[in-house]
Task: inverse folding
């Protein structure tokens, strides 16, 4: 887990790269009710461990591809790969087989 100072460093780089205020970064990461979390860390007041972990995870998974990772922060951003949705082949006919039409006959 990153320290509050490391998370703040990441948030400052992210904010500078995206043109956002620290409060906006916190709002994106944590929602509107915790928009002052990074300001609290900046002032030395601290935040809960859960809040720090949520900030860390959000920054790691939302790091801009063209932003430079700060040297003072260990690790690297998490690259997420999204696969395109699978396309299923359509049946040759639009007819859906029904149990009543399936190889059932009174003769068998």
Result:
């Amino acid at each position: 887990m990153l320290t509050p100072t490391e998370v703040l460093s990441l948030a400052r780089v992210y904010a500078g790269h995206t043109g956002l205020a620290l409060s906006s970064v916190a709002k994106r990461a944590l929602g509107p009710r915790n928009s002052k979390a990074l300001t609290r860390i900046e002032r030395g007041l601290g935040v809960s461990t859960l809040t720090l972990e949520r900030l860390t995870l959000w920054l790691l998974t939302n790091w801009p591809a063209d932003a430079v990772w700060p040297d003072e922060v260990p690790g690297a951003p998490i690259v997420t790969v999204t696969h395109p949705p699978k396309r299923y082949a359509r049946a040759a006919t639009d007819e859906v087989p029904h149990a009543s039409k399936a190889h059932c006959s009174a003769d068998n």
